[in-house]
Amino acid sequence: QVQLVESGGKLVQAGGSLRLSCEASGRTVSNYAMGWFRQAPGQERACVAAIGRRGDSTYYATSVVGRLTISRDNAKNTVYLQMDSLKPEDTAVYYCAAKETTYAAASYYYTTRDGYDYWGQGTQVTVSS
């Protein structure tokens, strides 16, 4: 079983940048496809970015294409979400999620909540206008 801890969320002005980190423990993150989700008050938790366990396949929600970048450093057991050109509508709690996958499915990523088995506690990102 893997444990996930997010960090890096804070208050930032519109147009600014943040880098969120998701550090895994208990198991090596290289065995997992990873995703970043966000949930704003009154809204459903939705996937903004996902990456296969090998790191060579990625997904981005339409609303974040060109502004958010997901990456992984398996040697550090950490997944990142670089967030640039932030907008007030990016304000949300950001969650990291993991799904154990086989080597044969190393390029697969998952974009729905029920596709993931493990979740972090979330980190708050607030973008002021």
Fold and architecture overview:
This protein has 129 residues and is an all-beta fold. It has strands at residues 3-7, 11-13, 18-25, 32-39, 46-51, 58-60, 68-73, 78-83, 92-100, 118-119, 123-128. A hairpin with a 6-residue loop joins strand 4 and strand 5. The N and C termini lie far apart (40 Å).
How are the SSEs ordered, and which strands pair?
Blueprint (H helix, E strand, L loop, with lengths): L2 E5 L3 E3 L4 E8 L6 E8 L6 E6 L6 E3 L7 E6 L4 E6 L8 E9 L17 E2 L3 E6 L1
Element-level helix/strand string = EEEEEEEEEEE
Rounded to the nearest angstrom, the radius of gyration is 14 Å
Tell me how many strands there are.
11
Low-confidence stretches: none
Distance between the termini: 40 Å
Q: Total number of helical segments?
A: 0
Approximate strand percentage: over 45%
Structural class of the secondary elements? mainly beta
Helix content: under 10%
For the biggest sheet, the summary is: 7 strands, mixed
Give the integer mean of the pLDDT values.
95
Tertiary shape: globular
